[in-house]
Amino acid sequence: FPIYVFLLTVAYALRRGYQGLKFSPRFWQEIATTFFSLAVMGVIAYLPFYLSFSSQAGGPLPNVVNPTRFVQFYLMFGVFLTALTFLLIAVWRRHPASRRSFLSWLLAVWLLPALFLALSILLVAVSPGLRQRIAGLLGGAPADLLPAILRLRLSTPFTWLIAGGLLAGVGALMTQIWGDLTQRRKGAKDEGGSGEHGLPSPSLSFALALFGTGLLLAYAVEFIYLRDQFGARMNTVFKFYYQAWLLMAVASAYAVYYVQTRAGRALKLVGIGLLLLLTAAGLLYPAFAIPGKAGNFRGEPTLDGAAFIQRYNPDHYAVMQWLKENTAPDTVILEAPGRPYTDDDFVSAFSGRPTVLGWGGHELQWRGNYDEPGRREPLIGAIYKNQSPDLTRETVQEFGIEYMIVGPKERDKYKIPPHTESSYQKLWEPVFSAGPYTIYRWKGGAPADQ
Fold first, then answer.
1. How far apart are the C-alpha atoms of 343 and 85, rounded to whole Å?
2. What is the CATH number of domain 308-442?
3. To the nearest whole percent, how much of the chain has pLDDT over 70?
4. DSSP secondary structure string, 304-356?
5. Closest CA to 64 of 157, 164, 153, 159
6. N or C: which end of the chain has fewer CB within 10 A?
7. Residue 401 pairs with which residues in a beta bridge?
């Protein structure tokens, strides 16, 4: 929510500007009150979540080795960048910002990040730890690091230059709009009511604020990211680009309207025509991807997400169905913890029954540490390896385990020999089998009753 606290504070400042309030102690007091009130309300709204929240984020780091190639940046935001470009041209013709203001913004958005990167590279040069970390990302020797960083940055400058240039254009126009608001004569109207010589409309100002915020988010990750377990900026790009896409998408709708209704004939034809062409090109993806992802619709239509398991692994499917039909929804089962984005832990996932540990890697991401998954993994292994009946009883009672699944993944993961599996029946009883899968039930009923 911090992004929207910032955006709403900017919107409130613009509103007060349109109402005639100039820079003054009262103005800054209102802005500060708005900002902190929104921030406090946001914290209170999510307080139950924050009380138990722990993040894997470990603070900001400079992004010195992963610049975005402009073709990738344009593929993500191309329609919006084009809409913004034509909006800036149309607005500039009606409300021209000073060249000095634009150059000041341009120097700020180009040179300040460049200075930050230069200092970051210098820090890398004198810090063995950072040098080793970045060398690992680049896959080269630490001695070759600085030339590699410079080569990467100098060979991919266009996202920095073009996105920075558009951001400078938005900043210069917003500066000009604010100047118009603070210097307007009494009785002046916005452009919706007074034509060429009126003030920019509040809707235009808000659209520029949306574009500026979205572009700033996308631009920022060129130079900084939040440290996490992945060691690169993947998660930061995902989180920031998602918000940037939403903000610029909304603003682009207004840009199309503005160009259509206020731009000159030539600009309108070129701008709207190019946007239609880009939109049509983007629509080619769903036209071809949907049939491709759906196997050209050769299969039988179904809303059953487990139908493919029934088709390709009917024994696995039978285990899931038996649990769904013969156990309560809160019954705890045990199966081998698995790797993310695989068919590991399918029994728990598709039967809806909780398990002791699923995808440990995702637990690490959500929790920010591996303490609890790391504690549970050896306990699960001890049960499957039948290392200690007493430890098995303690673990079963602690987690309330009622059923244990033994299948190919468990046998492979824990190297379970036949004699170990046959010894399970001292503590467990087999209740269902399908092909290589067996479901065992803890003897004596619910573990809590032991």
1. 46
2. 3.40.50
3. 90
4. -TTHHHHHH-HHHHHHHHHHHHHS-TT-EEE---B-TTSSTTHHHHHH---BS
5. 153
6. C
7. 332
Among 213, 140, 135, 200, which residue's Cα sits nearest to residue 171? 213
The CA distance from 366 to 132, in Å, is: 27
What would the pLDDT profile of 214-250 be if each residue is shown by its tens digit? 999 999 999 988 887 777 788 889 999 999 999 999 9
Q: Which of 5-9, 88-92, 103-107, 133-137 has the lowest mean pLDDT?
A: 133-137
Lowest mean pLDDT among 25-29, 202-206, 344-348, 377-381: 25-29
Residue 134 has pLDDT above 60, yes or no: yes
Strand boundaries in 95-142, DSSP class E: none
Does residue 24 sit in helix, strand or coil?
A: coil
180 vs 301: CA distance, rounded Å: 60
Burial 354-370 (b: 16+ CB within 10 A, else e): ebbbbbbbebbeeebee
> What span, in angstroms and rounded, lies between the C-alpha atoms of 57 and 54?
9
Domain with CATH 3.40.50 in the chain: 308-442
The answer to whether 190 touches 202, Cβ cutoff 8 Å, is yes
Q: Please, which residues have CB within 8 angstroms of residue 305's CB and are 6 or more apart in sequence?
A: 350
**Rounded CA gap, 51 and 41, in Å?**
15
| pLDDT of 2 over the 50 cut | yes
Tens digit of each residue's pLDDT (9 = 90 or more) over 150-176 = 788 888 889 999 999 999 999 999 988
Q: 3-class DSSP state for residue 196?
A: helix
Count of C-beta atoms within a 10 Å radius of residue 47: 9
The upper half-sphere exposure of residue 225, i.e. CA atoms within 13 Å in the direction of its Cβ, equals 21
In this prediction, residue 450 has a pLDDT band, given cuts at 50, 70 and 90, of very low
Angle of CA points 265, 271, 275, to nearest 5° = 145
